[in-house]
Amino acid sequence: MYRLLYIAAVFGALLLAGCDQSSKVKTLETKVASLEKELADLKQTIELNQFNQMLSGFDKVAYLTPGSDGYSLVKSDLGVLTVSIANIAPYANGSKVTLQFGNLSAATIDGLKAKLEWGAVDKNGMPNNENAKSRDVSFNESLISGSWTNSNVVLEGVPPQELGFVRLRDINHRGIKLRR
């Protein structure tokens, strides 16, 4: 009889322990679900912030594609400039590109500098950024006020038939001239 009582007590303890374990598991499952929701919300917030950051600098990048008509507007440290691709020719192991700048300001701009990026595009026409090339460039030509100015740049490693895009960003200058 003691033995039966002992077995009943052990069995009861196991049932109680099982109930205790079950409630702990449910508590942990609830916490995990809550953390998963918080993580998903944080990921969404990060993606939104990255998108907003990308848009905030959108006007400071000129994205040009060979064969497209017109020009791109790009914000520099002095204001807005226009830029387009006027010509592309084979050159050594790459391409020689003539960029045409339009200076909308009343000042002549000297020592224009920019970050130049170029490369191929994928089958959807999107830039292949992983294999894109880039360098800082200084343009020797003065951008006369209210005028177009052509400037040649050599884009190494990408022949004209593979050139899908040219980007200019971080545009600034060394000096300006004003009429007297």
TrEMBL record:
<feature type="domain" description="DUF3251">
    <location>
        <begin position="19"/>
        <end position="172"/>
    </location>
</feature>
<dbReference type="Pfam" id="PF11622">
    <property type="entry name" value="DUF3251"/>
</dbReference>
<keyword id="KW-0175">Coiled coil</keyword>
<protein>
    <submittedName>
        <fullName>DUF3251 domain-containing protein</fullName>
    </submittedName>
</protein>
<dbReference type="InterPro" id="IPR021658">
    <property type="entry name" value="DUF3251"/>
</dbReference>
<feature type="coiled-coil region">
    <location>
        <begin position="25"/>
        <end position="52"/>
    </location>
</feature>
<dbReference type="InterPro" id="IPR037125">
    <property type="entry name" value="YajI-like_sf"/>
</dbReference>
